[in-house]
Amino acid sequence: MSDKKRSIKTACVQGGWEPQKGEPRMLPIYQSTTFKYDTSEQMGKLFDLEDSGYFYTRLQNPTNDFVAAKICELEGGVAAMLTSSGQAANFYAVFNICEAGDHFIAMNGIYGGTFNLFSCTMKKLGIDCTFVDVDCTEEELRAAFKENTKCVFCETITNPGVSICDFDKFVKVAHEEHVPVICDNTFATPINCRPIEFGVDIVTHSTTKYLDGHAMTVGGCIIDSGNFDWNCVPGKFKGLTEPDESYHGLTYTEKFGKGAYITKATSQLMRDLGSIQSPQNAFLLNVGLETLHLRMPVHCSNAQIVAEFLEKHEKVEWIHYPGLAGDKYHDLAQKYMPNGTCGVMALGLKGGRDASVRFIDHLKMISIVTHVADAKSCVLHPASHTHRQMTDEQLLVAGIDPSLIRLSVGIEDVEDILADLSQALDEV
Q1: Which residues touch 110 (CB under 8 Å, ≥6 apart)?
Q2: Which of 350, 307, 299 is nearest to 326 (CA)?
Q3: For the segment 17-66, what is each residue's pLDDT rounded down to a tens digit?
Q4: CA-CA distance, 411 to 301, in Å (whole number)?
């Protein structure tokens, strides 16, 4: 059976590392900073990108590459790379094609850390970002484009608001404007959605979340579909289509074809910025990936039951979960993720901020943590935690209701989850 035909479930277990005769069945940890060669010429060819191989783990490591290959297969891409965090993955994904003086577009409602990266830090690098509403029209999206726009960034499911991206709209406009779409697929995972199948060009992940699944490792991943034509507008993507003087005038698209984008990100950005994932973390990530196809359906089924319970509860003011028939994004969820979305939902209680704090303080099994999307149920109140420096007025401007609770439903027995939620609500 060829890799392209095997099911995604089998790829979770068997993808990436495929041992040969006498090799370990479990993916080895190549816990080494450096790799030996016999001649100076051999090493020189590696530095000139004339030959493939490993020489220093800051750029590449076999353990990392086997895990990246597994995620690449799961997403249906042609090449992938691991990074030290999801933040690094999103930064590299955009910075690989944007430089000082460039502009890109991002969907609003995205993860706060990504929002700050795009609106503040990248602005200091001379790269401008325009944010558009997730529900914008094609005309409104098109109006955000400038002559120097290089990409459009979105999330399959936003964090923490659980809005759904309409791929057809974003991909259509972006491609008509000759720029790629980059999508963070962290919450949906390739089990529930493969954005490349809907025309997305580059996919990112915070592997810290569902892909790892056990809150053991921080990491990220970038996957390239290989479908975007970097030469579509002469001179638009110079970093990929014109000589790189730091590699003796090599041109990535000419030398590496469909592998140009990831090769540049690895050999240039990772070389200079060094946000590599450790081999130990990649090994643990691979262990998590082996059960991804088993865990995600349980997250979704548990979350559906919990959302339906909360929707009917007299103390719940509002709830956002795309699996609910009355949810604003239910139809889009059915279109792009008919088998389920994720285990994360947002809700607000009657009584506002104070009621939310009382509620989460009385939870017993469900943990108050800054993490999300792992096997254990957990909860966060942004107004009291991650965004506590903001006033209620500032929170509303940022699109965060002061009462908002982000609930991440785990894979415990759903009756135990419901019991904990019920007793905590009784205290509000």
Answers
A1: 153, 154, 155, 158, 159, 184
A2: 307
A3: 999 999 999 999 999 999 988 898 888 888 778 888 888 889 899 999 99
A4: 9
